[in-house]
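thread from #wetlab-drylab

HS: before we spend reagent money on co-crystallization trials with magnesium ion, can we at least see a predicted complex? here's what I'd submit
DV: go for it
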Amino acid sequence: MKITDAKVFVGGPGKNYVTLKIMTDQGIYGLGDATINGRETLTAAYLRDYIVPNLIGKDPRNSEDIWQFFYRGAYFRRGPLAMLAFGAVDVALWDIKAKLANMPLYQLLGGKSREGALVYAHATGSDLEDLMDSIAFYVEQGYKAVRVQCGIPGMPSASYGVAEGKGKNRNYITDFSGIIPKEEIWDTDLYMRYMPGALAEIRARFGPDLKILHDVHHRLLPREAAEFAKEVEPVRLYWLEDPTPADDQDALRLIRQHSTVPIAIGEVFNSIWDCNKLIENELIDFIRVAVSHAGGITHARRITDLAGLHNVRTGFHGAPSHSPLCMAAQGHLNVWAPNFGIQEYLVLGTPECDALFPSEHRLENGLFHVSDAPGLGVGFNEEEAARYSYEPGSLPVARLQDGTLWNY
Ligand code: GCO
Ligand code: MG
């Protein structure tokens, strides 16, 4: 069996999805996601210029060797763009293999450990009342877990994960217009004074059963994060996400010494070498890598297995940074992984998105159920794809009140 060709598509409804389609001499094709917010044309170029010519003629069933060929064969290893490109290839090859086996992909991983995988939604409010309405909206729909992000009184611009304007937003999507980033102003002191009380009110309003998550988006220094984590302990958060910048693995030690709040980190990691110490030293409770960004199923499964040895559970990234292809790959890992925790899931299911990526995967009562279609269980409609093209966009940047550039 041989790979005969591979194509890269960029675009989608309101998103620059980067989609890889690998074709074979047996008519079976595989699909992978190489979307990366704000740098989409670069992964597309990496795939087109380097990966695709190297794929042609290879046996698609040898996904391990192909992964090693790209990872070890690139003398300058790792990095988000390369790992994402390898991830797209890897997911497409698993898609092909599972289609060949005529099985849903999770069967090749070891079958189902659970029926549905717990997901969490994003609630957002420009103020606390607005946020309460947003949480209630998801609770009514059957979600058992919700990430809560709230506007901070006096903060000069909307804080992370919060839409500007009241009431209109139930599904926070980062503003992506133009290649020059929007600038937001961040004030740590205002946040530290306000947010713990707001989280306590949310717990009081929604009772003990709701799983409440909160994302600090890398904005605190280690000492501040330790203080914050200690203060929110009575809220019994399901997790506190990215309390400090993810590049400093030691930062979490201080938080651990002062608090038992579960810590989740890793959406910006792209390899096991970004998180092996964190996991082995048991400084985190949830690992947040995305399957596409962290080298595909082959590599994300290694991270998952290492995490499992250290009581760390998965909480894969699932913001609208990924196409339904990555979300499906994660869905298959989630039903299998013995150390599955939770899956971030923003409903992408607009009619336009469903037309581009048709599938039978479904969300029901706060749980994600993978379909039993062979492979990943997601199609790609090329006629639909032809309607879209790349729209330049960028994630915002954050500055402190005095102008100092901060962590977005
Ligand atoms: C999350 C993330 C995202 C990121 C986004 C950047 O927890 O979902 O923090 O919202 O900001 O993925 O591309
Ligand atoms: Mg996050």
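DV: Residues 168 and 253 are 39 Å apart (CA to CA).
HS: ok that's useful, forwarding to the group
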